[in-house]
Cadherin domain-containing protein
Amino acid sequence: MILIMDIHKLNIIIIWMLIFSGVHCSVNIETVDDEVDIKKTDHGYALTMEENNHKFSNKKALFKITESDCTHITLNFFSSNSFTYNIDDCILYSLQAFDYEVPTQRSYSMLIIDGTTTETQVKIYITNIDDEVPILHCPNCILDENTMYDKDNTPCFYTLEDPDGFLSFMTITVNNELDKTFEVITNQDLPNETYSTEEPLINLITLNYKTTDFYSFSVTVIDSGNNNATVNAIINVNDIRNTNPRWTKIINFAEFPEKSVQEFDVKAIDGDTGINSSICYEITGQDDLKQHSDYDIKIDKNTGHIIVKNIDRDKYDINVIEVNITACVCDETDWCTPQKLNYYIEDIDDHSPIIVKNTYLDGTDQEFNDNEPKIVNIEFLENFSGSFNFSSLIQDIDTGENAQFEVQLVPEGDFDYTVAYIIVPTAGYKFGNFKISVSDKTYLDYENPTWINNYFHVSI
Ligand SMILES: [Ca+2]
Ligand SMILES: [Ca+2]
Ligand SMILES: [Ca+2]
Ligand SMILES: [Ca+2]
């Protein structure tokens, strides 16, 4: 039966045989180091000590063997878990460190054999301490401006790892004086044997893309063993839609001649520069344009190029045209910025004064539809000394000095009949009513054949 067992089972059989046979003796051990706790158990000793892989120098005293001269001591490990050791002056030293994070170094079971018949069982338990450095992985985070994030809605999580566990005892600090802006929330309710978790980053104040579009800071994590790590973090701020477009190029006043073709360029940009959407232009709310649809004022929806033409200043007698344009975010047309454009239209002298109508004393009008010479025949008695029975409305639809005109009587043919007549007034602006009267009735002598038919022109 013994022949078919492996060496470990062989040892066990031997132990039990020895225990039950009662023929063997045992050695005792005692502590020589405060950091090593030794307790007597039913079957030997239980030795407990903290892992020491970070503070091990070259050897560690585990216990002292008593009641033996230690000249024939060997250790017999019960499994493949063993450690290197030596015995000096009956003190057993481990010549290697014990690291709890290495699973095979967490416990040992062995026999101390003194000679051939004396054995003592010793179990060694290595306890975990927070001796390894934690690791923090920074996410690449984008947070919306004007939004408060809490642990439930933040998209930003730091991965915290520590091979020791004990994650609930971590302190995570935001540096670079941004601890009033950001905070990493730590979870205080994790079992000690949790080795990795996600810790949410939240903001403590609202972020403003226009003020700061990204934050760069470091985050330090300290574990319960005072092991720490610092990593750099960058939080980008996402611009969200909350600003109307902004005009960057505008010509809000221009002066140019009527009936000319004018071109202007205006430009606006997205007020939310982080979104930077395309801007669309439009002419809006232009009452004059609706009234006078023969105006031609257009703006290119995409480029902001304005073309103005066909403005007939005289036709509507207006000198200033107010055009309202807007710049809107093309795909979010609630976001618009209006702008007023004022165009001062210069008159050109493209109209002559004309006689529009004659109005007779009885109230009837004789209207003229063209600029051709008009012939008016009137008859009256000799020695007539009053005014003719009509007045002439003369109009020049230009404006300014282009609308000033003079009126006079000029001879028709060789003989000057105008010496007997007068027209008043002799000048007008834009329009006026003119009346012709006899200024010297002594000319109006029927017996003088020259004065029976009088001809003259009204010249404007
Ligand atoms: Ca360790
Ligand atoms: Ca640790
Ligand atoms: Ca540890
Ligand atoms: Ca004109």
About this structure: The CA atoms of residues 257 and 346 lie 4 Å apart. Residues 130, 132, 134, 162, 164, 223, 225, 227 surround calcium ion (ligand 2) (CB under 6 Å).
